[in-house]
Amino acid sequence: NPFASTITIDVPVDHYKDVAVRITTISGAVILNTRLDSITNIIDVSTFPAGIYVATIVADQDILVHKLVKM
Questions:
Q1: Could you tell me which residues are beta bridge partners of residue 32?
Q2: What pTM, to 2 d.p., does this model score?
Q3: pLDDT given at position 57
């Protein structure tokens, strides 16, 4: 899942009422914290330095965690 300038997060918003994503560095510093309100969400991460990040997606009571690699 390496990325360069954007990441895309698809959310079934008809199923979830409250969806948010938090992106942190591998050491835990929060880089981005935002709500997702459409089916396809394109997030500009072009200003992030190369490295490994963690995306935590909270959808109502569900939590998904993904490792991201910025090239």
A1: 23
A2: 0.89
A3: 96
